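Work Package 3 (structural annotation) set out to generate three-dimensional models for the target panel prioritized at the project kickoff. During this period the team completed the workflow that converts sequence records into discrete structure tokens, so that structures can be stored uniformly alongside our sequence database. As a representative example, we reproduce one entry of 152 residues exactly as it appears in the project archive.
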Amino acid sequence: MERPFRSESDEIIGGVCGGLGPYLNVDPLILRILFVVGAMLNGIGLVVYVLLWIFIPTEETGYDDQEEVISQNVAKMLERIRTLGRDTQQALGGTSARQDGGALLIGLAFIALGVLILMRNFGLLGWIRHLWPLVLIAIGAVMLLNSMEGKE
């Protein structure tokens, strides 16, 4: 039996569904819908998609060296994330996150919220709830120290 590959011609994000579709003899659109539903229900769809993106090579790279496959896939994933970020930034008004501290702060807040929701879905949030007071105290202390340095 042939091994699965990620598609470079039928890719929307990472080519996972475009490559798995022919391998499983399923329409890639159905796989895409299943991954989105899985991501929305409990986050597992996103986790599985990212893992498949990391471990399944493209047809061009093949399965020669798994470490090389992972290294290339992670590099391509990071480049794709950067590209999507730039495209989203331009679509939302084109301001640079480096120039606009508010956009950077909002972006970080969304990332933190997403991580917290994902951790809650996997039942990993129990111990973190005891750290929130310490995190809030630390953030407040840093903000106060920064504001005091500016007044001296």
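Helices lie at 16-24, 28-41, 44-55, 66-91, 101-121, 132-151.
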